[in-house]
């Protein structure tokens, strides 16, 4: 059965399903987001590297162009004209923003000569080296492109702005890049932005050409410069690489970096989310920082990130919906199953399971309130017969009608349940002992009402019922014990004739326990063959001769001691042990007869008691015949004693069997006559030879005139029907005399002899007498 706690858990299951699947979606989206970020960062890094590479390419291109100009100067013998230089430089420079110049080294002694030469070459008669003044050496600007220089300006003029860089470049034998500076030869004021770079290449001539060209002592012929603004360099690069990047550039050749470009005026570089690259060119080191124009988040393909979330979200919704639907179906199915567990379908009463639960609950309340509780088990009598005769469908309908009638008879506070089969359990709480008579009358009323006829499928059915009652707390403190005891009580009611009720008492329990013990021990006794047959003589009351013997079971158990057949035979009958036990008795009786015959003893007819269950067996007669042929014994040596009960249960079949046995030559006796229904018609119709009057009548025959009268009547009647009468249990001479007076034929009892063991036969005076008599005859 489902607890409400489990139900609540189940009702939340769809939330859990939704949450788990949605969480998976979040995880998947997050993984994709991370991957996208990583991808964007890598791309940003790659773009920065590409940007740096392009910068490097731009600078290298400038250096190459500068080298071409150097080669031009080196190879010109008579000097390069201004127009030639311009044409050459223009052809090199794809971007007009690069400028070239050549400054010629002029030692002091050649100044005048050089000025003259340049005036001719440049077509400018006013060419002079300036600023004026006598200096040791000069390096006037000789050629330039684009043509907007002041030719003749001495670059070795000590006050020249870039004199240090020029000297440094002269001393180095390689091309040197300047730090960011102002455009050369410009009139720019000192607070102008230093956004120009100059590549300077010193020209050293080989020894063989120095003689006709102006050089210093080590062959320094002058200097070629290429200058360009940062803007023009970046223009060359950014269309290719930098359009979606922010960048800033610094010259880090010295200890203090000189930042000369920052494309992100507004954005801050402080968050550290940028890439740094380094570039070394012509003696200088640049640092290049790059980052995407837009943040990394704008580089992420958000659709890719969101799609798993959407898919999982949708999946979560669908699955949550189905989970909820599944649980609802599951719970409704479970509820209907539970209902079936609680309520019995056939009767509409509480099921066996539920009534037991109710009983447990009631016990707890009774315990608290200090009240009594009665558990009544109602069991229909011979319901199986109706089931067998009319089928289970009719049986079921009858049970349903019985249950309805039962609930109508019972008081409102009674709880009724169906235990299955043909049994019901009724629970009644009653407050004190005064309720007891009420319980008695209720039980009677229930039996009366239930036993009234039913109409089922056009049939009129009659059925009785027996009731067993167990009271709480006297006879059971828990449900199981109460039901067990009520069961025992109903059993008792059944054995005492059915259609009655019985209250459980302690004695019943003890008796039941002993019966169970007897049952188990009896089974073992039968296997170990620890039973015995004793024989009680029957005496002809006129001749006082032994005319027969009754075989009686004797059992001396190791644990239980001597147990009377009056006690264990009924148990054997109820448990079915009587069948193997009966077989054993017959076999023993035959065996003994054979043994006695072999010992030369004249054996009188031996009467064997036979229970109803034995006679009901189809193989009873075949077995008997088999024994007769096995032991080769005259059937007339055997008598069979049966009680009336068998005749009531199955009169017709039994009559046929008894006739067959009689035809074999065996005598039949009706045992314990007078105690049961004692229908005299049996005596008339059935092939009985003897009537055995029950010892109850004989016991009181002297004291009780009614018993005497009954005994007398039975004897006369039996004689009239041609039957002989045996009186059981004759214990004294007065009884014997009275029976003789009544004309009784045969007697049996302790007055003559108790039942004797099989091996005492030869020494028993009655048998000995019988044998003597036989020999005289
Ligand atoms: P039953 O067939 O009526 O047997 C007679 C019973 O009366 C025997 O009791 C016998 O010992 C007892 N009896 C005989 N004379 C006297 C007497 O003078 N005074 C008293 N008080 N009792 C006397 P037992 O042997 O205890 O057997 C009881 C019953 O058990 C038998 O009653 C019979 O119904 C049944 N029984 C015994 N042996 C068998 C058997 O082998 N098969 C079956 N089916 N039932 C048996
Ligand atoms: Mg008997
Ligand atoms: Mg008897």
UniProtKB/TrEMBL annotation:
Keywords: Membrane, Transmembrane, Transmembrane helix. It comes from the Bacteria. The chain crosses the membrane at residues 12-34, 300-322. It holds the Pfam family EAL. Residues 129-289 form the CHASE domain. The keyword Membrane applies. InterPro entries: CHASE_dom, Cyclic-di-GMP_PDE-like, EAL_dom, EAL_sf, GGDEF_dom, Nucleotide_cyclase, Rev_trsase/Diguanyl_cyclase. CDD domains: EAL (cd01948), GGDEF (cd01949). Residues 371-506 form the GGDEF domain. Residues 515-769 form the EAL domain. This is EAL domain-containing protein.
């Amino acid at each position: 059965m489902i607890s409400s706690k489990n139900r609540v858990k189940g009702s939340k299951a769809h939330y859990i399903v939704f949450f788990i699947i949605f969480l998976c979606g979040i995880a998947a989206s997050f993984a994709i987001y991370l991957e996208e970020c990583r991808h964007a960062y890598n791309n940003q890094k790659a773009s920065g590297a590409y940007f740096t590479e392009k910068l490097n390419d731009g600078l290298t291109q400038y250096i190459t162009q500068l080298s071409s100009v150097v080669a031009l100067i080196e190879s010109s013998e008579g000097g390069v004209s201004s127009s030639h230089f311009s044409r050459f430089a223009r052809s090199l420079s794809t971007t007009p923003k690069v400028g070239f110049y050549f400054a010629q080294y002029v030692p002091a002694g050649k100044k005048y000569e050089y000025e003259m030469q340049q005036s001719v070459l440049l077509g400018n008669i006013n060419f002079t080296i300036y600023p004026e003044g006598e200096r040791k050496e000069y390096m006037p600007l000789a050629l330039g492109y684009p043509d907007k220089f002041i030719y003749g300006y001495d670059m070795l003029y000590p006050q020249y702005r870039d004199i240090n860089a020029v000297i440094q470049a002269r001393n180095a034998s390689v091309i040197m890049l300047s730090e960011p500076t102002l455009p050369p030869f410009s009139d720019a004021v000192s607070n102008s932005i230093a956004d120009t770079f100059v590549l300077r290449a010193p020209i050293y001539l080989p020894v063989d050409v120095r003689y006709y060209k102006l050089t210093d002592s080590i062959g320094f012929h002058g200097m070629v410069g290429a200058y360009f603004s940062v803007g023009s360099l970046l223009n060359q690069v950014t269309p290719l690489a930098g359009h979606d990047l922010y960048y800033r550039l610094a010259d880090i050749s010295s200890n203090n970096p000189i930042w000369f470009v920052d494309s992100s005026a507004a954005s801050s570089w402080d968050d550290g989310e940028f890439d740094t690259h380094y570039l070394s060119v012509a003696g200088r080191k640049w640092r290049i920082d790059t980052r995407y124009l837009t943040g990394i988040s704008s580089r992420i393909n958000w659709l890719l990130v969101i799609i798993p979330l959407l898919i999982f979200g949708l999946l979560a919704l669908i699955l949550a919906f189905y989970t909820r639907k599944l649980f609802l179906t599951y719970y409704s199915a479970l509820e209907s199953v539970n209902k079936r567990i609680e309520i019995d379908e056939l009767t509409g009463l509480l099921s066996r399971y539920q009534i037991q639960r109710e009983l447990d609950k009631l016990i707890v309340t009774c315990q608290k309130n200090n009240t009594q509780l009665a558990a009544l088990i109602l069991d229909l009598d011979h319901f199986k017969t109706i089931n067998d005769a009319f089928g289970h469908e009719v049986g079921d309908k009858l049970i349903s009608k019985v249950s309805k009638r039962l609930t109508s008879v019972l008081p409102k506070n009674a709880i009724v349940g169906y235990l299955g089969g043909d049994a019901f359990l009724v629970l009644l709480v009653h407050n004190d002992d005064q309720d007891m008579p009420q319980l008695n009358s209720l039980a009677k009323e229930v039996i009366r009402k239930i036993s009234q006829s039913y109409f089922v499928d056009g049939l009129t059915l009659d059925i009785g019922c027996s009731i067993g009652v167990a009271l709480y707390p006297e006879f059971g403190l828990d449900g199981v014990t109460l039901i067990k005891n009520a069961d025992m009580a109903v059993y008792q009611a059944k054995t005492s004739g059915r259609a009655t009720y019985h209250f459980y008492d302690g004695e019943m329990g003890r008796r039941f326990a002993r019966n169970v013990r007897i049952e188990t021990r009896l089974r073992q006794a039968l296997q170990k063959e620890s039973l015995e047959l004793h024989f009680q003589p029957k005496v002809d009351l006129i001749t006082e001769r032994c005319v027969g013997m009754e075989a009686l079971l004797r059992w001396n158990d190791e644990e239980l001691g001597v147990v009377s057949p009056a006690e264990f035979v009924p148990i054997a009958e109820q448990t079915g042990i009587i069948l193997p036990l009966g077989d054993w008795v017959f076999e023993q009786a035959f065996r003994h007869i054979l043994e006695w015959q072999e010992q030369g003893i004249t054996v009188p007819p031996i009467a064997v008691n036979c229970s109803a269950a034995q006679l009901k067996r189809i193989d009873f007669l075949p077995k008997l015949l088999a024994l007769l042929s096995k032991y080769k014994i005259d059937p007339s040596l055997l008598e069979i004693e049966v009680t009336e009960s068998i005749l009531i249960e199955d009169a017709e079949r039994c009559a046929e069997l008894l006739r067959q046995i009689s035809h074999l030559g065996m005598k039949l006796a009706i045992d314990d006559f007078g105690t049961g229904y004692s229908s005299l018609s049996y005596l008339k119709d059935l092939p009985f030879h003897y009537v055995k009057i029950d010892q109850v009548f004989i016991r009181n025959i002297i004291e009780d005139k009614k018993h005497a009268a009954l005994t007398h009547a039975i004897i006369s009647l039996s004689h009239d029907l041609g039957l002989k009468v045996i009186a059981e249990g004759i214990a004294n001479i007065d009884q014997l005399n009275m029976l003789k007076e009544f004309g009784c034929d045969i007697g049996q009892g302790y007055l003559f002899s108790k039942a004797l063991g099989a091996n005492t036969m030869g020494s028993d005076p009655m048998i000995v007498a019988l044998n003597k008599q036989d020999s005289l005859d």
